[in-house]
Amino acid sequence: MVLSSSYLIFSKLSGLIRLGNWWHYKIPPLIAIFFFSEEIFGEHTIGEIWYKLLLLICWMFSAASFGYFINDWSDVAEDGLAGKKNLVARLSVPLRWLFAFCMPALAILIQVLINGFYSTAFLLSVGHLVFFILYSVPPFRLKHYLLPAIFCDSLYAHVLPSAIVFTSICNTKDCLPLLFLLCASQFTGGVRNILLHHLFDRKNDLVSGNSNFANKFHSLFILKIVNRLLLPLDLLLVLIFFSFVSIYLVYIFSALVLFRLFLVHVCWRIKRLWLNKKMSYWLLNDVYEGYIPFISILLFSLSSLKIFIVLCVVYPFVFPHFVTGLVNDMRHINYYLKSISCR
Q: By the 8 A CB rule, do 264 and 279 touch?
């Protein structure tokens, strides 16, 4: 009875903060950035690393929960018009205010514990919360303005979280070039993702009145920008950043992208790849969100067999999406090999 009640509460809470929208897709890349930053600049003990990582995951949870919650609260009326489900609409106004206060307060408190008041990471984390408000809440509501919406979304969803994790590890003065490179890569990936989101959400945005590139420009034009400009640029910037971590990581990342290209083009037999909406997800996002975080953990834990074993066991349980993706990839490869042998 207690277990069923606890599960029901967790299910409602996870739906309220849209946990499934960001836990598997936003948190693993930030964990990867954490371990890569430790690899380059870290001078912490194992205990300090785990303490800081745990606090940063708690910060990610509270900040992301606030961002999604405040966005849904601001969208209650528009989602009603578009016929979209919005769980915040079921909450009383006092409960909404309580949640909207507690989450950012917790995020700020955690940043104070990690970095103190007068750190770059703390200032960035405050700015991160401000951008959530600017994007969603009237009278600002930047999501209704085309270019500001894309700029703001890229900042709060990609650039600022990555910069906060990065500057929580290194001294800002010592890592400015790498910080700029990381932010440029994250901004490119953020713009790429939001443009794709516009393509997928075109009909809903047309009803709700949200600004959408796909309702102002031809879909083919947007796909060309995403797949022929932003995707190669994103790939190049990530490769340069990885070269500062380890040359082997460059080789591994390149091999993974080629593997995904083979999988999509040969195993799935998808033609005219550059005109496919999901190509960018298949080639880069699946690598960023699945393989690279796990590889970052492996690289970090190579010096200790115990840590290596523990992480290899724990990570798939915490992020089962990675295991699902890996199994699906292996299944497609196996199917392809069987089809070749039968010819």
A: yes
Q: State pTM to two decimals.
A: 0.89
pLDDT in tens, 122-168: 999 999 999 999 999 888 888 888 888 889 999 999 999 999 999 99
Long-range contacts (CB closer than 8 Å, 24 or more residues apart) made by 31-35: 31/57, 31/293, 31/296, 31/297, 32/288, 32/292, 32/293, 32/295, 32/296, 33/162, 33/165, 33/166, 33/182, 34/165, 34/168, 34/169, 34/296, 35/296, 35/297, 35/299, 35/300
Instruction: Give buried/exposed letters for 330-342 (b at 16+ CB in 10 A, else e).
Output: eeeeeebeeeeee
Q: Tokens 């990675």 correspond to what residue? A: 322
Helix (H, G, I), strand (E, B) or coil at 298: helix
Q: CB 222: neighbour CB atoms within 10 A?
A: 19
d(CA 249, CA 255): 10
- 3-state SS class at 178: helix
